[in-house]
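FORM 12-B: Structure-to-Sequence Request
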């Protein structure tokens, strides 16, 4: 919350109001753009320290695992020797007692110093990687468009641009907001009434099309569908005082069909719907494309 508040003029003013009666000098420190060499060195030192700590932890874990395996192997060998000795005793074989070997005192192994270096990518880092973002995505999505730089008009006695000047900082913020608008999810997007009405109409159309697809795939229902269409054409012709057109069977290769030339998607010319062979994925893609069309128009 504090990080977000630092970027919003209204919240900065609210924070400054708490210090209005005091004698404190209120200064805004703006750190944007490429930092100083000293800051870069400090960040790279922290990154290197973290990297070394991880490498040492991994080496320690590996050494402990190797020691564990070594102890397991030693216990296995001792158990095997004991088993062989017991077998010889049971078979009546007497052998010379095995000389107990004195174990030489183990020399303390000197831990090798772990040497790590920064990669070229890490050398170019100006910020230490952090597992958590400064501002949660859900909060950022609602506020980033209103981010601004502090000004004296808000109540600051001074505004100091530490790394880059005001002009460069303003440009960086503007570019960052623009880039966010290209990729950031809009959490509080509310569709208008026209969108809702068009989407409801689209849902009805989709239901009708999917029903028509089912009828076309069923041979018996397909015959009834074609007969119904023929009757409708005949009736329409009679109402116009024209002679009903003769039924002609058209052979249409759906693979070579120019879909953009089809005038009626429910009948490409031979009664077959353009979407007769649509699968689940096709319907999903069609829905997404239409919803995007509604959002953009």
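FORM 12-B RESPONSE
SEQUENCE OUT:
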């Amino acid at each position: 919350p504090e990080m977000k508040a630092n970027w919003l003029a209204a919240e900065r003013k609210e924070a400054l109001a708490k210090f209005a009666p005091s004698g404190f000098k209120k200064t805004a420190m703006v750190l944007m753009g490429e930092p100083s060499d000293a800051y870069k060195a400090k960040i790279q030192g922290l990154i290197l320290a973290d990297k070394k700590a991880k490498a040492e932890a991994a080496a320690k874990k590996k050494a402990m695992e190797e020691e564990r395996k070594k102890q397991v192997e030693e216990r296995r060998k001792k158990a095997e020797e004991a088993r062989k000795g017991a077998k010889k005793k049971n078979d009546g074989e007497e052998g010379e007692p095995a000389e107990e070997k004195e174990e030489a005192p183990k020399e303390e192994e000197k831990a090798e110093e772990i040497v790590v270096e920064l990669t070229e990518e890490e050398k170019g880092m100006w910020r230490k990687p952090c597992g958590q973002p400064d501002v949660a995505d859900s909060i950022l999505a609602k506020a980033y468009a209103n981010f601004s730089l502090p000004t004296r008009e808000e109540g600051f006695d001074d505004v100091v641009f530490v790394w880059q000047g005001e002009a460069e900082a303003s440009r960086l913020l503007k570019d960052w907001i623009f880039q966010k608008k290209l990729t950031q999810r809009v959490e509080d997007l509310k569709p208008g009434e026209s969108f809702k009405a068009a989407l409801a109409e689209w849902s009805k159309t989709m239901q009708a099309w999917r029903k028509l697809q089912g009828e076309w795939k069923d041979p018996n229902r397909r015959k009834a569908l074609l007969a119904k269409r023929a009757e409708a054409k005949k009736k329409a012709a009679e109402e116009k005082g024209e002679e009903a057109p003769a039924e002609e069977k058209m052979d249409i290769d759906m693979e070579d069909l120019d879909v953009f030339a089809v005038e009626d998607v429910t009948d490409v010319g031979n009664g077959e719907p353009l979407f007769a062979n649509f699968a689940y994925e096709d319907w999903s893609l069609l829905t997404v494309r239409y919803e995007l069309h509604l959002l953009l128009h």
